[in-house]
Amino acid sequence: MKTINTFKQLIRVKKSRGHCSLCGCLSNQSPKFEYVGKRKYSSEKKSGDIEIQTKMKAWQIYQYGGNEQLTLTSTARIPKITSPSDILVKVLAASVNNIDVRMRGGYGKMALNALRRGPNLMANNSEFPLVLGRDFSGIVVETGQNVKKFKPGDEVWGALSAARQGTHAEFTVTSESEISKKPSTISHTEAASLPYVATTTWSALCTIGQLSESNTHNKRILIHGGSGGIEVTAICSTDAVDLLYSLGADVVLDYTKQDLKEELGKIKGFDVIYDTLGKRKAGYSYKYLRPWSSSKFISIVHPLLSNLDESGVPFGLLKTGVDAASYGLRTGHHYSWAIFIPNGKALSKIASMVDNGQIKPVVDKLND
Ligand SMILES: NC(=O)c1ccc[n+]([C@@H]2O[C@H](COP(=O)([O-])OP(=O)(O)OC[C@H]3O[C@@H](n4cnc5c(N)ncnc54)[C@H](OP(=O)(O)O)[C@@H]3O)[C@@H](O)[C@H]2O)c1
């Protein structure tokens, strides 16, 4: 029998016959994990006297609302692998993003429930109890039969699709395409602060903005509101000015003290403006894009999910389409929205950038 050091009190590797001895699901991977820990979780007995952990601690909500809806339970079922590309991960650290707070209040429920139902549109399964949390850093416990790149014991990080049950739990199920190996130079806590914001920024700047290592020479990028979840910034409030210089911004403007229109007027000619604030706060800046070029205004404050929540599917889609077209026409510039898409390939590159010191995690506050 071999022990995995990082969670040695909890799990021991054991040859198993037929099914996963951790959660009881069907999987043809071997060796398997057996619960041998001292933690007092509910457990069932199977195959003789082996104790199998079937329950875990998790923060759950049973209806949408404020913080009062969050319940810490120690009897949530450990999620099961249901697809051959699924991976069961022991979560060692997770973070709270803006989207978790908004999802707690019901944001995106219309579209996300449709995604959860999948092709079975008529199904009426409730999303509750719902576990929030997109980011995680942890250790692979079990893999589906088609998983090639990861094996039990690998240290991995990722950000899950918003339609999945979340990571504010001891275990989570992800898929091979959503994760990569964790950067080796930072802790699990630091790692859990990055995947969601980093892949959203990747989606905006690399996928939609078409920026790459080879084409950024002589280009100017303006980033609104980056001192929050979203990476590097050039406009922020006083508290974040030093931090943003230390992270490598060339110019940092303080929106609480400086006249932004005057300052941006002096710089002029941005190739890409990355907006994390929304039209009301950042819409004025499209005029600082480089004229007569392929310059782009890219916003991650996407109205689609709220429009679907407010107006239902056909009208929500229509409203979003009209919004996009009218904004582009009014500004005369290429206007796009970018959304977070789980992206294991991007995370693998981001992990190398972290290990090379090009991206630094900033952890503000820790909760046990
Ligand atoms: N499309 C997607 O997939 C996606 C993914 C991630 C996030 N988002 C959206 O992106 C938005 C931002 O997310 P976040 O996680 O960064 O939120 P956040 O943590 O609330 O951060 C927002 C930041 O913007 C700063 N700020 C506020 N007003 C500003 C202004 N006028 N100029 C410059 N900076 C200003 C705030 O700094 P101070 O507190 O110091 O004022 C704060 O640090 C949210 O609407 C979120 O829903 C979308």
TrEMBL record:
Superkingdom of origin organism: Eukaryota
InterPro entries, sorted: ADH-like_N (IPR013154), ER (IPR020843), GroES-like_sf (IPR011032), NAD(P)-bd_dom_sf (IPR036291), RTN4IP1 (IPR037397), YIM1/Zinc_Alcohol_DH_Fams (IPR050700)
Annotated keywords: Mitochondrion, Oxidoreductase, Transit peptide
Pfam families: ADH_N (PF08240), ADH_zinc_N_2 (PF13602)
Protein localization: Mitochondrion
Domain Enoyl reductase (ER): 65-334
SUPFAM superfamilies for the chain: GroES-like, NAD(P)-binding Rossmann-fold domains
UniProt keyword annotation of Oxidoreductase present: yes
Family under the similarity heading: Belongs to the zinc-containing alcohol dehydrogenase family. Quinone oxidoreductase subfamily.
Name recorded for this polypeptide: Enoyl reductase (ER) domain-containing protein
Organism expressing this protein natively: Tegillarca granosa (Malaysian cockle)
